[in-house]
Design brief:
Blueprint (H helix, E strand, L loop, with lengths): L8 H13 L1 H9 L10 E6 L4 E6 L2 E2 L1 H5 L4 H4 L3 E6 L8 E4 H17 L7 E5 L4 H13 L2 E4 L6 H11 L3 E5 L2 E3 L2 E3 L1 H9 L7 E5 L13 E3 H4 L12 E2 L3 E7 L7 E6 H15 L7 E4 L6 H13 L3 E5 L10 H9 L3 E4 L1 H9 L3 H4 L8 E5 L5 H11 L6 E4 L33 E4 L5 E2 L4 E7 L9 E2 L3 H9 L6 E9 L5 E6 L3 E4 L2 E4 H8 L5 E11 L3 E10 L6 H15 L8 E5 L12 H9 L15 H8 L3
Parallel strand pairs: 4-17, 6-7, 6-8, 7-14, 8-11, 11-12, 16-17, 16-18, 18-19, 19-20, 30-31
Antiparallel strand pairs: 1-2, 3-13, 4-5, 9-10, 14-15, 15-24, 21-22, 21-23, 23-25, 25-26, 27-28, 29-30
Length: 632
């Protein structure tokens, strides 16, 4: 469909070779297919020491002109966005490219009318309603930097993110629907903003029709504001390296970091990876189930599909409401041909039994995708057989918030597919594996730390407000390389299999949390002195959260204490980071230098205490016996 779409394995090999030998020529040819107000002066300038990476330097453009305006002539009446409600009885909403363009321009005018301008940071804390997609694009239209905060984060987590980015505006809604529940979103925003002095304006979209508390002089309703503006809004001219968005993600230290993506490179990479991995065709109805609050929603619900002129589906609900057949019902309803979801959703639907999936035809489906965490073979085969009816390829796409787009993945029906393997790198991506001594493993059939040795256009440029943190987190472990934090294997044919994080990051249902971040939240509980958090294998979530806590005194009622700890984590981070198991202990296994030996805790959490390894270097080896005996 796209002129840069690779169709055969031979073309892939050719493209890959060129992308390594002549990266600038390779990416320039792809970038040529977009609308630029002014062409770039230089395709790439980079070093991984500072790091300093610039793609398409001097180029001028606006990503929304590429998502919307350039399609108006040929695809003006094609559907751009189909929105499906949480409630199967509520009518779906659809927008053609022409209609979406108009709505984005209107929202952009509302932003401008309320004082927003190029370079301002705007926090978006909204449910999965069409206005969320429109709001994100409206920010990009006027050159404001969007920072979307996932609706499951607590007031405290939102406040941290708003303050870090010094946002001047918040876009939100009165409330949200999630399965059978309704959640008072605006109330959470009001609580967060008590500690956010930078916010001058809050624009509220009505979703539930609830009476909410509006702060005079600060809060306005979107439906009032939109009446005051026109439908015309020329796009702001952006430099290719101007900031497009900030998205916060967890690392191995306490505070989440604001990953910064810029306009030009991100645009080129989002579109190129989207149309190639999924082998998009003009008639596709494409559905990515991720929330726009995560990078998957940014790149593959919104930007990638719209840049490609594809019809993208947005779903407000959850996979199991009103029953575990909901996804498949929506697939049949719209004739979805490309479906992209997370292993955790597949596993939860698998557990609900085959009847739910077998009740639907799923005839329209052509390509299936998986993202966010390793997909185990059982889930892979179930997905392939029951959803893909043994005829659709499953693309297991490996990437990160920091990479902006898919890096290693099978390209549907083009490159080799192997269950539980991400496969080969996309053209332009140069992964390498490093051993524990920091040497490159050049052979196949090896396992090591996954790094990138060459820049790609969609990569992270900095961490907002703290460039040194970016350098330390990604570019200092191995000199001259971007370190992903993941371990991976390469098989005899060069296909990659991602094993998972090798740092103190837990991946719960495809969402990243630093153990330090959860420990910090737990330690806020008045009865807790210290805690240590590790991940353990969980049937549905991939990894569960296991917390070991030391208290002031042995609690009389451990269940009560556990409930309080859970409550603290929910208020500091959000429901998504709730510990699954909490064990009260009198001490933690520490080395003489005071470092917690997490390896031992991980083994206990996994229920594998047969071989705890060498414990002789511990300060107090007896503590291990107690922990093992009290394991949950
Ligand atoms: O550990 C890898 C895992 O998710 C991490 C990135 O998380 P995040 O930035 O939240 O982005 C998730 C969506 C792109 C990675 O470091 N991960 C992501 N995709 C896969 C994966 N692990 C195995 N296989 C995948 N396909």
């Amino acid at each position: 469909m796209s002129t840069t779409q690779i169709k055969t394995f031979e073309e892939y090999q050719e493209a890959y070779k060129r992308s390594v030998e002549d990266p600038e020529g390779f990416w320039a040819d792809i970038a040529e297919t977009f609308t630029w107000r002014k062409k770039w002066d230089k395709v790439l300038e980079w070093n991984f020491e500072e790091p300093d990476v610039k793609w398409f330097k001097g180029g001028k453009m606006n990503i929304t002109e590429n998502c919307l305006d350039r399609h108006l002539k040929t695809r003006g009446n094609k559907l751009a966005l189909i929105w499906e409600s949480n409630d199967p009885k509520e009518r779906f909403v659809r927008f053609t490219y022409k209609e979406l363009h108009e709505r984005v321009c209107q929202f952009a005018n509302v932003l401008k009318n309320n004082g927003a301008k190029k370079g301002d940071r705007i926090c978006i804390y909204m449910p999965m309603i069409p206005e969320l997609a429109i709001a994100v694009l409206a920010c990009a239209r006027i050159g404001a930097v969007h920072s979307v905060v996932f609706g499951g984060f607590s007031a405290a987590a939102m406040a941290d993110r708003i303050n870090d980015a010094q946002c001047s505006m918040v876009l939100t809604a009165d409330g949200l629907n999630r399965g059978a529940k309704q959640i008072p979103v605006k109330r959470v925003v009001n609580e967060a903003l008590q500690t956010c002095p930078s916010v001058e304006r809050v624009i509220v979209v009505e979703r539930l029709g609830w009476a909410v508390q509006m702060v005079e002089g600060r809060d306005v309703w979107y439906h009032d504001e939109v009446k005051k503006v026109g439908k015309d809004c020329p796009a702001e001219e952006m430099d290719a390296e101007d900031m497009l968005f900030i998205l916060y993600t967890s690392g191995s230290t306490g505070k989440p970091k604001g990953v910064v993506h810029t306009c030009g490179g991100y645009m080129v990479y989002a579109q190129y990876s989207f149309c190639n991995v999924f082998q998009i065709e003009e008639s596709d109805i494409y559905w990515c189930t991720a929330d726009i609050g995560w990078i998957t929603g940014h790149t593959y619900l919104l930007y990638g599909p719209l840049l490609s002129g594809t019809t993208t589906v947005m779903f407000e609900g959850i996979p199991t409401y009103p029953d575990p057949g909901r996804f498949w019902q929506v697939v049949d309803k719209f004739g979805v041909s490309v479906f992209y979801t997370a292993p955790t959703a597949i596993r939860s639907l698998m557990a609900a039994g085959e009847d739910h999936v077998l009740s639907y035809s799923l005839d329209s489906v052509r390509v299936l995708g998986s993202v966010g965490e390793p997909i185990n073979e059982e889930a892979w085969y179930w997905y392939h057989l029951h959803v893909g009816k043994d005829r659709c390829p499953v693309v297991d796409t490996w990437w990160q918030t920091e990479t902006g787009g898919i890096m290693i993945s099978t390209m549907a029906n083009v490159t080799p597919m192997k269950p539980s393997h991400a496969g080969l790198p996309l053209p332009g991506v140069q992964p390498i594996l490093i051993d524990s001594d920091g040497n490159e493993l050049t052979e196949n059939e090896v396992e090591g730390y996954l790094c990138m040795k060459f820049p790609w256009p969609g990569m992270i440029r900095t961490t907002y407000g703290d460039h040194e943190r970016c350098r330390l987190s990604y570019f200092s472990t191995y000199k001259g390389l971007y370190f992903t934090g993941d371990g991976a294997k390469r098989d005899k044919d060069g296909l990659y299999r991602i094993i998972g994080r090798v740092d103190d990051v837990i991946n719960v249902s495809g969402h990243r949390f630093g153990t330090a971040e959860i420990e910090e939240a737990i330690n806020h509980n008045k009865d807790v002195i210290e805690s240590a958090v590790v991940g353990y294998p969980h049937d549905v979530k991939g990894q569960g959260i296991y917390a070991f806590v030391i208290c002031n005194e042995i609690p009389e009622n451990a269940d009560h204490l556990r409930a309080e700890i859970v409550e603290t984590v929910v208020s500091k981070i959000g429901k998504i980071a709730k510990p699954d198991k909490i064990q009260v202990v009198s001490g933690l296994p520490k080395t003489r230098s005071g470092k917690i030996m997490r390896r031992i805790l991980r083994k206990v959490a996994e229920g594998d205490t047969s071989n705890l390894g060498d414990t002789s270097t511990l300060l107090d080896p007896d503590v291990v016996t107690e922990i093992v005996e009290g394991a949950l």
